[in-house]
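Many introductory courses stop at the sequence. We go one step further.
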Amino acid sequence: MFRASLIALSIGFASANSMHLGKLCRGQTCDNPAFPIMDYAAGENKCVCRAHPCWDDNGAAHSCVGEDAPFLTFSYDKDLKLSCGCSSLPFYASTYIVKDLCPGHYCESRDHSVLDYDEAEGKCICRVHPCHDMDGMKHECNDPKFPILRYREDESKPICECAAKMERPVSDEL
């Protein structure tokens, strides 16, 4: 049900990686599968690793199991209402960008699929994935175990890396 509501949106919005967030969170990464999303907590003025927001959507845990659209996506409308869906394209985004800075903004062009914030202009923009032209090289993730192309910045340089598909961890309940 929720898949159909976001498929059209996620076609252009997949594999998002914010250069703005990369600068804010320089030198940091999120490797814990339970908290795979690098994010910025503006109120605390620090970077944090978050769980996927669709893993706890007011008590509902969304997931994507079909081969045609196996990647869980999310967006927020102008009223900050979360929408979860599935996409055929890998997806990685920050709630700070999608919810706090750019709610209701969507990138519909496959060529400019990354929703980002331009600090100099003070506005939300759609850009080419930063890893699609890094020093003249287009990075890709062809290993099905690590399909998400993720951009981040180290202390001295930008980094493109392949990350595992985000799947909600199964909690051990006794």
